[in-house]
């Protein structure tokens, strides 16, 4: 089943796909890989195959089981837009999200061009349904081009996860982006995040009218160094892009 999540910016996770192939420095110390590989070779465990790619058709119906609306992070243990995943299965994931439309889904990828092409084809000139949020991960300036792919998607609910933030991203244009999440890396090999990298993004968000959420500094454990930036918590959330009935239910 999908699980209640400890991730600060969502309520639950849903993994119709698990496992992934690394595509950049943000993947080097992947928390999902570290978790999944603990269980490799244990018969009957959901991660018996470790972090090898696996599709889970039986999980496609899970969102329909939950009747109370919630924020759902899709594939916290994978990336839906890997080339190795058959497009028919991606269609089935989107079908499931469209069917159980009382939830908000957060779909995050590093494969921004593939997501862009898929979404442009699926919705062919129309808007992405407002309860399906599409986002990209950006770890440094070298990967900021993913933002431009995201901007070409016709959706009011585009978001960016700058996590793990491994370097300055520079003076990027975030206009039209609804939400930015910043966080440092966690785990035994965590690379430090410099304060000026985070404050630069915070200030760009203020300039471009983007909700800003500071998740954590990171360290050996996610909570090792807290989540205060310049002595404050930053809990920005793009309420304006949540469909009104869902927002009301989430607040109840």
Mean pLDDT: 95
Largest sheet: 8 strands, mixed
- In the sheet with the most strands, the strands line up as 1-2-5-6-7-8-9-10
Quaternary state of this entry equals single chain
Order of helices and strands: EEEHEHEHEHEHEEHEH
Structure, briefly:
The protein has one domain (3-251).
Structure notes:
The chain has helices at 31-37, 62-65, 87-99, 112-123, 145-151, 195-208, 244-251, and strands at 3-4, 12-14, 17-18, 54-55, 71-74, 104-109, 132-137, 158-162, 179-183, 211-216. The protein is globular. The protein has an eight-stranded mixed β-sheet. A two-stranded antiparallel sheet has the order 3-4. Helices cover 26% and strands 16% of the residues. The protein has one domain (3-251).
Notable characteristics:
single chain; 252 residues; alpha/beta; 7 helices; 10 strands
Show the helix and strand layout.
Layout: E1 3-4, E2 12-14, E3 17-18, H1 31-37, E4 54-55, H2 62-65, E5 71-74, H3 87-99, E6 104-109, H4 112-123, E7 132-137, H5 145-151, E8 158-162, E9 179-183, H6 195-208, E10 211-216, H7 244-251
Parallel strand pairs: 2-5, 5-6, 6-7, 7-8, 8-9, 9-10
Antiparallel strand pairs: 1-2, 3-4
